[in-house]
Amino acid sequence: MEKRNQLYEGKAKKVFETDNPEILMVSYKDDATAFNGLKKGTIAGKGVINNKMSNILMQKLESQGIPTHFIEELNDRETLVKKVTILPLEVIIRNIAAGSFSKNYGVPEGKVFNSPTIEFSYKNDELGDPLCNSYHAVALGLCSKEEIETVKTYAFKINELLKDFWSKCGVTLVDFKIEFGRLSDGTIILADEISPDTCRLWDSKTGEKLDKDRFRRDLGGVEDAYNEVMKRLNENI
Ligand code: UDP
Description:
Blueprint: E1 3-9, E2 13-18, E3 23-28, E4 31-34, E5 39-42, H1 46-63, E6 70-73, E7 78-82, E8 85-86, E9 89-96, H2 99-105, E10 112-122, E11 131-132, H3 134-139, H4 145-168, E12 171-182, E13 188-191, E14 199-203, H5 213-216, H6 222-235
Antiparallel strand pairs: 1-2, 2-3, 3-7, 4-5, 6-7, 8-12, 9-10, 9-12, 10-11, 12-13, 12-14
Helix pairs in contact: 1-6
Uridine-5'-diphosphate (UDP) binds at residues 90, 92, 98-101, 175-177, 198-200, 212.
């Protein structure tokens, strides 16, 4: 597989074309941003961890019936993925109140929900990724009614699988953001990444934060936290 033109450079990843029009190459960077790009920094080694973690988790999900974009890990930072058209929706699942949910609804961080919640944000940096519901998503033409139903079904199933898996690692899955894409034949698959950048992961015993909140909130020990969750994952695959 030959690496060709860079298609796109995002906040945490670069995406390249390959000699196969159906396949892209993703390259993970150590750059970190928060608050819609207002806070910028570097987390040494993050790209390597996010690449490996996302690939391990996507393969686990795939083996449990969730279609994903994962094809092949090439090296520490680079992975081949299926080319999709990303649905411009951030899909957020929560098991425990934290972050914007706690702020918006006045619920203390750490409140465990009886059942998980789902929410959508319209991916649009200029508008600051506004919240939307499934009717808004369809009205805005972001996806079809059938597609949003598929997304919901997959998202809750992904939550159950990831929650069980992380609990075996002594890690509580608080919440996470995922993105889906459409293959050229219209099939909806899981795309983007699953990593400490996109999930809240708390040590099950101590409640210590092992994710990007350490960077967002200047808690220190950012690299150590990423290394710790990666170590726990490696010990449990
Ligand atoms: N999240 C993300 N990208 C975003 C916004 C949120 O990956 O642009 C993840 C975040 O890491 C957390 C979950 O989605 O695991 C819920 O985030 P929340 O809505 O609480 O926003 P935040 O407090 O991070 O601004």
